[in-house]
């Protein structure tokens, strides 16, 4: 665990004369905890220092190749489709790639997480990854599990999103037609069939009890 050191100023490469290894940092938290907002802030900080980077996402809430936050910020982004190869991205990015901001990283493949680690170690590219830890069953996403295993730093975001009861929200519940479900495809981001699919952040107690709260608004 670490503090939000990525928010501190970034020393331009070479200024100190000391070599700094590139880093793989993973920031995680439940929905609505401010991950995309922090991703956009880090991108702004690095760009201001003259560093060259790209913002990557998959299935952003905007539906387009953008990273958007619920509080209204947004940046152009590159969509990470299933066959996307991060190695070739670096080779075709000119003049150079200093860093990557990777949002919605829970949707990436495990192989793509391995590619990100390779970029850090072999190409000296800083990677800042943002995503959910667990799915609607409260089980880790495969990509998230690999990031926990490989990242240099793992940081749980401290911007608390609250359960309807006021306790810190930790787990992402899925509702279909207003009812909590515990089985189904791991990734469902659009309505399927006739019943609307929604997600709601709950505390552990109410996630495990299956209690969505009386009249609590689903997201
Ligand atoms: Zn609760």
Summarize the structure.
This protein is α/β, with parallel strands linked by helices and 219 residues long.
Task: Write up what this structure looks like.
By secondary structure, this protein is α/β, with parallel strands linked by helices. It folds into two domains: 5-156, P-loop containing nucleotide triphosphate hydrolases (Rossmann fold); 171-209, no CATH class. The chain is built from five helices and eleven strands, in the order E-H-E-E-E-E-H-E-H-E-H-E-E-E-E-H. The protein has helices spanning 35-48, 86-91, 110-123, 142-150, 204-209, and strands at 24-28, 53-57, 66-68, 74-76, 78-79, 99-102, 126-131, 153-156, 171-176, 179-181, 197-202. It has a six-stranded parallel sheet, with helices on both faces. A three-stranded antiparallel sheet has the order 10-9-11. Helix 3 packs parallel to helix 4. Zinc ion is lined by residues 163, 165, 167, 202-203, 205-206.
Strand content: 15-25%
Describe the largest sheet: 6 strands, parallel
The unique ligands bound to this protein are: zinc ion
In CATH, the topology of the largest domain is named: Rossmann fold
Q: How does the SSE layout of this entry go?
A:
Blueprint: E1 24-28, H1 35-48, E2 53-57, E3 66-68, E4 74-76, E5 78-79, H2 86-91, E6 99-102, H3 110-123, E7 126-131, H4 142-150, E8 153-156, E9 171-176, E10 179-181, E11 197-202, H5 204-209
Parallel strand pairs: 1-7, 1-8, 2-5, 2-6, 6-7
Antiparallel strand pairs: 3-4, 9-10, 9-11
The structure holds zinc ion (ZN).
